[in-house]
Design goal:
Layout: H1 28-46, H2 52-63, H3 81-120, E1 128-135, E2 141-149, H4 156-162, H5 167-174, E3 191-197, E4 200-207, E5 212-219, E6 222-229, E7 233-242, H6 247-253, H7 258-268, E8 283-293, E9 296-310, E10 313-321, E11 327-330, E12 350-353, E13 373-376, E14 382-384, E15 389-396, E16 402-408, E17 412-417, E18 419-422, E19 431-432, E20 437-441, E21 451-458, E22 461-463, H8 481-499, E23 520-522
Parallel strand pairs: 7-23
Antiparallel strand pairs: 1-2, 2-3, 3-4, 4-5, 5-6, 7-8, 8-9, 9-10, 10-11, 12-13, 13-21, 14-20, 15-16, 15-19, 16-17, 17-21, 18-20, 21-22
Helix pairs in contact: 2-3
Length: 524
C-alpha cells in the first residue's frame, strides 16, 4: 500500500503565541478604589494648607486654566497674584455651590424616600391619621389618636395588624360581648378611632350610627365597653313649590334633597297616584327638620307637616307622636294618612287597560269583562304587595299565567297576574308586609306584552283599583283627640302662615316659645 504525502509550498508551522497570564487578586480593584478615595480625601481636606504657589498651581490644573505670562515674558506667579486669586476664588465658589446643591438634592431625596416609606408602611396606613394629641405640662404626649377608615376586605384583625397592635388585645376586647359584637360587622367607609400610646391600645371608639358610639377604654389593664348616645341638633325649615313639569323637578327647585322628596311621595302615596294624578299647577308645602352633628348637617327629615294641593283638593298631613312613643301621620281631623292598601303595586310606564266590564279581549276577540287594571311595565319590574296579608295562591292560574293572590283579613283580597317570576320565599301560606316585593312583571298566560294585571276585591266582589275608597288604619281615638289637637296646632298655624291662610289663626295661643314661627327657616 502506497501513501502519498503532499507538502504545502512555503509551509510554515503555526506558532501560537503564549499569553502571559497575570494573576489578578480579587482584592486588587477594591483596594485600588479605596486608595484613590483616601488620597482624594487627604488632598481635599489638606488643600487649604498648601502654600499659595502650590495652591494656585493645583487650581490651574483643576480648572485647566493656563498660566498668564508677565510683562517680562516669563511665565510665573509673582506678577499675576491678583488674577490667580480671582481664578482660585471663582473655582472655590463654584465648587462650594455644587456641594451645596448636592446636599440640598440629597436632603430632598431623603425626605421623599422617608415619606414614601411611611405612606407604604404597614403600621402607618394612609387611612390612619392622628386626630388628637393631649400634652402634659412638660409637653410630653400622653394621648395619641388615629382615625382609620375601613377599606374593602378589612376586618378588625387586619386593622389591628396595620396599627401594630397585638392580637391579644383584640381577643380581650372581643370577649367583652354585648355591643362589642358590632365590631364584627364593620363596613367599608366607616371610621374607627384608636387611642394609642407607645404601641399600646388605650381606647377605641366606633360610631356605628349618627347618635350612638361604642366606646372601649383600658382601665387598670382591663378593657371596658360602654355605649355613648349623642343628641343631634335639629333646625326646622320649610319649602314651598308649584309643580310645572314634575314633582321631582319642583322639589329640587325648592331646595329639597332626594330623601325628602321620597318621604313626601311615601307620605301621600296612599291618596295620590304620582304617575297618574299629578296635574300642572299642583303645589305642596313642607315643614321639615335638618339634623346637625358638631355643626355639620348629617341627615334630612323627618317631615313635621305638609300640605299637598292635587287637582284642587287640599290634603294636610301632620306628624304625631303617641304616648307610647309610636309615630304616625294624620290628617287634621285625626284620620290616619297611612291606609291599609297602597294605591298602585308597581312603578309602571302606562295603564294599558282600565277596569271595564264590557271590554273586548285582545286575544280571544270577544266581549269579556276586565275586572282589574293592567299596568304596562318592562319585564322584571318589581311588584309590591299593596297591603299586609297572606299568600293564598302562588302558581299558574289559567289565562292569568303565573299569579299571586293575597288575602287581607277576612274582607279584602288582591290579585297579581301575568308574572315573569315570583320573589324568593313567596309561597302559599307565607305572610307578607305592605310594600314587600312579591314578584316581577312578565307576560305569562294570555298576554300580548309585559304588564301586571291587578285586581282589588271586597268580599269577593271586584272593585276598580283606581277609584275604590281604600280603608284607613286606626284613627285617633275620641279619648286622645284633645291631646292630638293641642299637639298639632302649632304646625297647622305654621302651615297657615307659609301658605297665607288664616283659617285657624285662633289656635295661635297654643304656640310655645320653642314652637313659635321665628324658629322655622326657609329651606334652600
Amino acid at each position: 500500500m502506497t501513501y502519498r504525502v503532499y507538502i504545502k509550498k512555503d509551509y510554515k508551522p503555526e506558532v501560537v503565541p503564549t499569553k502571559r497570564r497575570t494573576r489578578v487578586s480579587s482584592l486588587t480593584i477594591p483596594i485600588s478604589l479605596c486608595l484613590i478615595a483616601v488620597i482624594s480625601t487627604v488632598f481635599y481636606f489638606y488643600l487649604p494648607d498648601f502654600n499659595t504657589q502650590d495652591e494656585l498651581s493645583v487650581a490651574h490644573k483643576m480648572v485647566d486654566v493656563p498660566t498668564i505670562p508677565s510683562k517680562s515674558g516669563k511665565v510665573g506667579f509673582e506678577e499675576n497674584t491678583a488674577n490667580e486669586l480671582t481664578i482660585q476664588n471663582s473655582w472655590a465658589t463654584a465648587e462650594q455651590r455644587n456641594i451645596d446643591d448636592d446636599l440640598n438634592n440629597l436632603e430632598a431625596l431623603s425626605t421623599e424616600l422617608l415619606e414614601s416609606e411611611i405612606l407604604e408602611s404597614d403600621v402607618y396606613d394612609s387611612t390612619a391619621e392622628p386626630i388628637a394629641e393631649v400634652e402634659n405640662e412638660d409637653n410630653s404626649v400622653i394621648n395619641h389618636w388615629h382615625s382609620v377608615t375601613v377599606k374593602k376586605g378589612d376586618s378588625l384583625a387586619l386593622i389591628f395588624s396595620r396599627l401594630g397592635l397585638s392580637a391579644n388585645e383584640l381577643y380581650r376586647i372581643m370577649t367583652l360581648k354585648g355591643d362589642v359584637t358590632r365590631l364584627k360587622k364593620i363596613q367599608p367607609g366607616q371610621i374607627l378611632h384608636f387611642q394609642i400610646q407607645e404601641g399600646q391600645l388605650n381606647g377605641l371608639e366606633y360610631d356605628y350610627s349618627l347618635t350612638k358610639t361604642l366606646s372601649i377604654k383600658r382601665e387598670e389593664n382591663k378593657f371596658t365597653a360602654s355605649l355613648i348616645e349623642h343628641e343631634l341638633d335639629a333646625v326646622v325649615k320649610h319649602a314651598k313649590a308649584t309643580i310645572n313639569d314634575s314633582l321631582f323637578l319642583a322639589g329640587k327647585e325648592a331646595g329639597l334633597t332626594d330623601n325628602l322628596i321620597m318621604q313626601l311621595v311615601a307620605l301621600y302615596g296612599w291618596d295620590i297616584d304620582f304617575a297618574l294624578d299629578i296635574r300642572h299647577g299642583d303645589s305642596f308645602t313642607l315643614i321639615y327638620e335638618e339634623k346637625f352633628k358638631d355643626g355639620e348637617r348629617v341627615a334630612d327629615g323627618p317631615i313635621l307637616a305638609a300640605e299637598f294641593i292635587n287637582n284642587g283638593e287640599t290634603i294636610r298631613a301632620i306628624r304625631y307622636e303617641h304616648a307610647d312613643g309610636s309615630i304616625d301621620y294624620y290628617e287634621d281631623n285625626g284620620d290616619a294618612m297611612r291606609k291599609a292598601f297602597l294605591r298602585t303595586p308597581v312603578n309602571f310606564t302606562r295603564i294599558s287597560s282600565r277596569f271595564n266590564l264590557k271590554r273586548k279581549h285582545p286575544i280571544l276577540n270577544m266581549i269579556r269583562a276586565h275586572r282589574g287594571v293592567d299596568y304596562a311595565a318592562p319585564t322584571g319590574t318589581p311588584i309590591k304587595a299593596t297591603g299586609d296579608g297572606t299568600v293564598v295562591h302562588a302558581g299558574l292560574k289559567g289565562g292569568y299565567g303565573k299569579t299571586i293572590i293575597l288575602r287581607h283579613g277576612g274582607k279584602y283580597s288582591t290579585v297579581y297576574a301575568h308574572l315573569h317570576k315570583y320573589a324568593r320565599g313567596v309561597r302559599n301560606g307565607k305572610k307578607v308586609k305592605q310594600g314587600q316585593i312579591i314578584g316581577y312583571v312578565g307576560k305569562s298566560g294570555l298576554a300580548t306584552g309585559p304588564h301586571l294585571h291587578y285586581e282589588f276585591r271586597i268580599n269577593g266582589v271586584h272593585r276598580n283599583p283606581l277609584t275604590v275608597n281604600l280603608p284607613h288604619v286606626e284613627s285617633i281615638s275620641s279619648k286622645e283627640m284633645p291631646q292630638f289637637k293641642e299637639s298639632i296646632s302649632p304646625m297647622l298655624a305654621e302651615l297657615d302662615k307659609i301658605t297665607g291662610k288664616t283659617a285657624i289663626a285662633a289656635q295661635q295661643p297654643f304656640l310655645s316659645e320653642n314652637q313659635a314661627s321665628p324658629s322655622v327657616k326657609e329651606g334652600g
